[in-house]
Amino acid sequence: MDKLNLESLLRKNIQKLKPYQAKEIPCKIKLDANESPFPVKLSDFISEINIHLNRYPDPEAILLRKALARKVKLSHENIMPGNGSDELIYYLILTFGGPVLYPAPTFAMYGIIAQSVGVEIVECSLDNNFDINDEEFLKLIKLKKPRLIFLSSPNNPTGNTFSTDKILKIIEFAQENSSIVVIDEAYQPFSSKKGFLPFLKDYDNLLILRTLSKIGFAGLRLGYLIGEKNFLYEINKVRLPYNVDSITQYVATEALNRFYPQIKKFICQIIKERQRLYRELLRIQKIKVYPSEANFILLQIENSKSIYRKLIKAGILVRDLSSVINNALRITIGTSEENEEFLKTIRKILGET
Predict the structure, then answer these.
(1) Which CATH class, in words, describes the domain spanning 9-38+261-350?
(2) Is the dihedral of CA 256, 260, 266, 272 positive or negative?
(3) Strand order through the sheet with 287-289
């Protein structure tokens, strides 16, 4: 019997695709995945999970949507939760197709999901300050007529927010060219900017993505899409049934209703530590450090791969981004003690103790 030729059965776009890498490397200090460094246990805000696991979850996630809606001061009908923002990005591309336009470098999943679905991707390089090259971006909108435009602001992995004026110019031009703009605000809670929720009423081609992952609940895998009801109605056609499980719905709802003041305290601590870590890194001559509005800091350092390996040997895991940005590392903001240990170790590695 002939052996199955698996590759011949793959769609061509899948043959060329490389999977998203989320490797788990054991280290005592984990500063690689843009998670909150503060442990959150169910017992911090829940005494008993009062749900019946023999029943399917609420298919409409009504209580969760209402809890999210209260935080953004909108109707729950303007909210669609998903199994992480990744699922919602997938639904968006599945619903509207391509081309899909986004700046580069940015969150890898826009491109990976678009390629897996089989639509054209269009990348527009950021300028030297990691801001949007608006002239080039507008040209690509006119030339390529993208169905979807993704803008992550604050941007992962660079950490900066894009200029509000440039984003508004893109939204307006996209509207004239029948393109949808999705602002991914995963890191907005850490930013000094207010974000784009106030503009939803002004532009009918605007959608906003947010998540609970960065503010202490990465283990729940809960993202949510904010937009007009007519948009969500169409996207709901491709949503898998019961896509947010009962435990996630219950825990997230309780966290939003009972634990949110503590979440805000954690966010303030992360911002304070980010500012301190940034100041300390500026004092290290061999490092180029970039200002950040997120819960991480991007830096460039000569021989970054070697530095990355030495940090792992010392028990500190950061993100190696040298394949995306030359000699770049991304450092998630940890606790004060973790950040101090990172500073002490990087100084020692660079001989600046």
Answers:
(1) alpha beta
(2) positive
(3) 287-289, 296-301, 328-332, 319-320
